[in-house]
Structure formats: C-alpha cells, structure tokens
C-alpha cells in the first residue's frame, strides 16, 4: 500500500527520532533494486511532485519509509512499464483517492489493424508525440530543437520509443545547470558510437536461424549496454576527478 508522500511534518532531531532517513540513506536502500539511481534522480522526482520529503529547520531532506516505498514504486513503473512521469503521477493520485485503478498501459506497435504478430524479441513500448510533450512539460518548438540535435527521434511519424521520455527528463534536468541541448550533441555522438559497437557484436546472433540464439541476442545486448554505460560513467568520473554517489 502506498503512503502519503508528505508523511506529516517533522523538525530537527525529533524527525530523526521517528526513523526518518537522509537522502544518502535512501539512495543506499534504493540501490539494492535500482543500482543506477542517483541523488540527482531523487531530487528530480521531488521537483516533479512525485514525493514530498520533510525538511529540517536547516533545510535537509528527511524521508519516511512511505516516501521510500513511493520512490520505489515510481522507479519500478519507469523501469518495468516505461511510463512517463505525468502518467505515473496521475496513477498514484488515483491510488491515494482510494480508487481501484489498474496500472496504465501505453500503446504498443501493431502489424496492421489486428494484434501484434508474435516475435522472438520483446515488443517495444511506444508513446505519442502529444504524450511525450505532456510528460516532459515542453512545447513543440523545444521538441523540434531537440530533434534537430538528434537527442530525440521518432521511430515513426508522431511515435517515439518510451526511452524518449527519460531522455527528455534528463535534458530538462541538465538545463537547470545551464547545459543547453546544443551542448549535448557530443554526448549523443558518443552514445551512437557505443551503440554501434554493441550492435556490431550482437548482429551475428540476431541473424541466426535458431530462435533461441536470436532471443539470446536480446540478453547479450542488455548486458553489453549495461557494461558500456558503466564504463562511460567511470571514464567521465576519472576525467573530472570526482566520485559520483
């Protein structure tokens, strides 16, 4: 059961005595299931109204067990169901109102008018342009600018893969630090090169006649992509001389 995001009001040591946690402790708890989560991600979800941690008189965030449970629920819906934040927010609000609501399901691509044909690979989730704009809180002009830099690209006319919503969230978050979309072209180029390297390794598996071998290509792609992301993060940290949480 989800708890209220605010969890009441607490101050100073009294809040700590009631078992509230610092953002660092929350990060360690969440990383057991979500190893890629960061403090910036938690703060971003707070800024988007998904959680409302308490604050001490000095301004430090204090999270209740209910806050952590809610955070896990949000991250799970993003990871497993590719839901944009707007949809997640509405779903949580419905739960808090006591409504018997099912988890929203975004549209999936179909072959023709009927059900999608069976495939060896999992079907990718798709979102429409209007839904992407609403989820990111941007207008057509901003999205067109991002598309011109290659940061987001439709998979079909007016249709995007669900990861576009995540890209949009991160572009907005970076923008708060003065990093503009045009500055991210180098990041996109590096990502394309890394994806090309992974694709080069798994391409022979995807073309194999054996369905099990083709299915194995999906798992190998995820494994290699995860390693590439970790290497990229490590190289950036090394170049900056910092250690990310």
Question: How would you describe this structure to a colleague?
Answer:
The protein is mostly helical and 245 residues long. It has ten helices and four strands, in the order αααββααβααβααα. Strand 1 and strand 2 (61-62) form a beta hairpin. Helix 9 (185-206) packs antiparallel against helix 10. It starts with 11 loop residues before the first helix and ends in a 5-residue tail after the last helix. Residues 3-17 and 107-123 have low confidence and may be disordered.
Instruction: Please compute the radius of gyration using only Cα atoms.
Output: 20 Å
Q: What count of helical segments does DSSP give?
A: 10
Indicate how many domains the architecture comprises: 3
N-end to C-end Cα span: 29 Å
How many strands appear in the DSSP assignment?
4
Q: Could you spell the SSE succession in H and E letters?
A: HHHEEHHEHHEHHH
Query: Order of strands across the biggest sheet?
Result: 1-2
Largest sheet: 2 strands, antiparallel
Strand content: under 5%
CATH architecture of the largest domain: Orthogonal Bundle
Give the averaged pLDDT, no decimals.
Answer: 78
